[in-house]
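User: Hello, can you help with two protein structures?

Assistant: Certainly.
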Amino acid sequence: MRIVIAEDDPLLREGVALLLRAESLDVVATTDRPDAFLAAVEEHRPDVAIVDVRMPPTHTDEGIVAAVEARRRRPGLAVLVLSAYVEQAFATELLSGGANRLGYMLKERVGRVEQFLDALHRVADGGTAIDPEVVAQLLTRTREDSALERLSPREREVLAMMAEGLGNTTIAERLVVTDGAVHKHIRKIFAKLDLAPTDRVDRRVTAVLRYLDDTRRD
């Protein structure tokens, strides 16, 4: 796995690089600016980019903008965004083009090495990894008149785990239920969100994006 890291905090940047190299992963470039990040993506053609949300010169959304641009230039690029705080507008902006190969994690999660590496491998393998704290905070901001109000508490719990990027088996393990029970909950979620079966739409991704978009508009 070839990785580019874009993070303006030198301690975090080099710490993540050392951690990944210790795991025998190939960190091909590290940088502290969005323009240098895009240049590194063009030059090294990495499999995964780890990108800070806030970067120079204004420390607002440069990292997100650069990540979106990198995905436009290289559609197969997996991106794991790191943020110090929960910023749902940035999460949904990044996910608006599709949730595959995308992750959004709080920086504090890097210290929990197993969880951080799990998220990295998940996005590299084509999945989604949304920090559970991000999902938890978004869940509390859902509007009362939302379509999500149709969901039962357990169905909302399952959808929140889907938003983290967890698969059915992992969800079943967390809830201490069978895979069949999880499948039943997900079918009900699709029905209540009016997501009919179709070959052209990934209903799982659509449900998660609707969940994130609805909380963003609150």
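That covers the first. Now for the second protein you mentioned:
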Amino acid sequence: MTSEITLFVNPTAGRGRGAHAAQPAASALRAAGFSVRTVIGEDAADALRRAREAVDTGTRALIAVGGDGMASLALQAVARTQTPLGVIAVGTGNDFARALGLPVRDPAAAGTVVAEALEAGRTRDVDLGRVGKTWFGTVLASGFDSRVNDRGNRMRWPTGRFKYDLAMAAELAAFRPIPYRITLDDGRVHEVDATLVAVGNGSSYGGGMKICARADMSDGLFDVTVVGDCSRTTLLKVFPRVYKGTHLDHPKVTVFRAAKVELAAPGVTGYADGEQLGGLPLTAECVPGAVRVLVPEGPQVP
């Protein structure tokens, strides 16, 4: 393993914050005495190839600079290796960083955390989800929320978060419960009409929506949150509670815990860490201690 640190940068994250964040993050690492190399790919595939090359040639750490999409891409390179992952979270959601108790949208502070963790050898092995060959750190989303993503991704105008607000309004108007078949690793099969099903390794998605509020990234299990057959009125009442995680006590919400889960539902796309996986059915497996992450001193949230 070399002494060189690899900064893995998405220059477009957070409407350009990724490019600006790389400099203070690199400065914090260099001030601590580390040699820093920056990797920027021409596209996602090229970026991942370069990140894997850095890991394969023994970089001391891979530091993702960007949002959850960049952290997710970095996970594909470091999962099941000894190379630690650092996160400089400057995207829109930053849920993976939140789950690790890392600074959000403060690249200098995050760079300092990474540098101090490297100096002290302070790492934490956390679980990851895996669907096929794709790893995810936070939540696999399906149902109402994934249909909002589908619609938003098809819209050319407007841009930014407002596009997804409009997509949500349109999906609410057209929404009907979805027939799901949920198969857990203990053999239990649940056939339910549901609004959405979220498979959580981490607790939140969408920038702090605690859909799987009690998920623990170190217990080897997913929290599978099932929001049942809700009317639009009920959904609008329950939705704001997701930000505090208090929706889990609602009678329409059920939580299962499992190391492996298969979701099947017609016409539904799965998204993990905000990235499209493809149509259901999908099988997700929780892999204990699959990635080593650089963390701040003191306790981290699950």
